[in-house]
Amino acid sequence: MNEFTHKIATLGDIPAIEKLMTLSINQLLGPLLTKDQLEASFDSMGLDDQLIKDETYFMIYSKNIFVGCGGWSNRETLFGGNHTPNRDDQFLDPKKDSARIRAMYTHPDWTRKGVGSLVMSLGEEAAKKLGFKKCELMATQSGILLYKTQGYEPIEDVLYKAKSGKTVPMVRMEKDI
């Protein structure tokens, strides 16, 4: 079993995070989608620097190798990057809302080794400390299996429509924590 370490991402980490995101989207999600769906994915995914500013975004390392990232949020936005039009930075109410698991990306050489599971565990534990009882996420086609194995249940199929008009299928999922 790999031994991972993690740190809270800073704004200075953005170039490394963006490089990993692009690699992960192209190599892990890309083979599961059409060219048009992959293009739409880049509209629906990417860096949300609010997570970094909120100190809720984790960078995962194996020794000194950056192998994955992801985080959680107590804000309304469920998915997307700074460029995605569905943004809402309003805070959630832990008594009635689900915390968000957000922006998870793994280096293609490190899939199925526990990176994503660790990110989810870190996010869920932090959300619990703020009083949240549930977590919610928007799954891409490459993430659905991981989320199901971590106890997330599908609650809605979504066909995301990009600014270009191209679409990509996604699944909204939720878990009691």
Automatic annotation (TrEMBL):
Q: Give the UniProt keywords, A-Z.
A: Acyltransferase, Transferase
Indicate yes or no for the key word RNA-binding: no
Q: Where is the N-acetyltransferase domain?
A: 4-177
Recorded GO molecular functions are: acyltransferase activity, transferring groups other than amino-acyl groups
Q: Sorted alphabetically, which InterPro entries does this protein's record hold?
A: Acyl_CoA_acyltransferase, Bact_Acetyltransf, GNAT_dom
Cite the CDD domains for this sequence: NAT_SF
At the top level, the lineage of the source is Bacteria
Q: Which Gene3D superfamilies match?
A: 3.40.630.30
Keyword Iron attached: no
Q: Which PANTHER family match?
A: ACETYLTRANSFERASE, AMINOALKYLPHOSPHONATE N-ACETYLTRANSFERASE-RELATED-RELATED
Q: Please identify the protein, giving its name as recorded.
A: Acetyltransferase (GNAT) domain protein
Which species expresses this protein natively?
SAR86 cluster bacterium SAR86E
**Upper taxonomic classification of the species?**
Bacteria, Pseudomonadati, Pseudomonadota, Gammaproteobacteria, SAR86 cluster
